[in-house]
Fold this protein.
Amino acid sequence: MLNDKQQRLYEAFYTSTHEGEHLDSKTETLVGLAAAMAMDCAPCTNYYMKLARQQKVSKEEISEVLAKVMSVAAGQKRLQMLDVMEKYKLDLSDYK
């Protein structure tokens, strides 16, 4: 879908995100895993899970990442529902 120039630029950008100056490689992997989970990208999640195994990331660390992604998603859904209720003037007291 991208032309050759766009593909090269994207690949350069993507590669640059793995060469950060401030995060150590384990933290970068955990941030990538969280982003992949949050964006529902199975290939990316698979990539970061394999990278995490290579870096000796513990199952407890992965569990904490999953829990954080789940908590953010739950909060987002709660806010989404509140927005709908406000926009359409819905009141839960009207429901049994």
